[in-house]
Amino acid sequence: MRIRTTREQYIFRFKTTLRWIVYYMLILLSFIIMTSGTFYKPILLVPLAIGIAIRNNIYGAAVTGAFCGLLTDICCGRLFGFNAVILTFFCIVTSLLFELYLKERFINFLMISSAVSYIQCWLDYKFYYQIWEYENVGRIFARVTLRVWVYTVISSVFVYILLMLVNRLLMPKEHLTIEEAINTNIQSENRKQ
Questions:
Q1: pTM for this one?
Q2: pLDDT tens across 84-113, in order?
Q3: Domains of the chain listed by start with CATH number
Q4: What is the 3 state secondary structure string of 25-64?
């Protein structure tokens, strides 16, 4: 790794700012798609929030999860904050999982995105339909909730590809600071002895 110069620090800040602007433009585009069209449409904000949480720290993941959750509440006409709490929790967990244990692979993203979107759809069904004991409530789960979940899982593939392009173009490369370079040099000399 190379040592980060002042010019590279400016490029790092610029790319990071531009990447977050693109992330939030994608979130707003997904919000527009979710609020238009028919009743059966994917909840695009769930895989988008999970995909953003994979490559970022806990704070960025929490803020993104809360924002996407609030927009999902607006789109679906749910209690304000219901999906925000769910997505914030799962974005933090996802960020920690990918930081500590998992590698950034498509199959890992798809499994987590599928699980989170299923839990979100299942909780929505439990709290908004089953708890009130509507007639033929099982049909709602089979015909509406599962269909929306399948559409969300299918759309996760396209969300992953889009986020990988954004990250490949705008994710700044890691460079060492002078302090890190000195500490690395000292540690390598200690290993040789």
A1: 0.82
A2: 999 999 999 999 999 999 988 999 999 999
A3: 6-176 (1.10.1760)
A4: HHHHHHHHHHHCCCCCCCCCHHHHHHHHHHCCCHHHHHHH
